[in-house]
What does this fold into?
Amino acid sequence: MDWTILLEEGENNWSAYCPDLPGCVATGKTKDETTRNMKEAIEFHLEGMREDHIPIPSPTVTAALVKV
It folds into this structure.
């Protein structure tokens, strides 16, 4: 499955979250590190959902960049 993540640049780091998986977040020093950490966070989050017999939702969020 493909999951959309949103990345935010902070003052000293990056953070990310997955809108389709509430509570699934990650941080890192760079955008690339944060993306890698988020992939691991999603895998861990889904594993926990499976172990707890929680249905895994289908991804519904998509993203697009809009230049104004």
Q: What stands out?
A: The two ends are 31 Å apart (CA to CA). The longest strand covers residues 6-9.
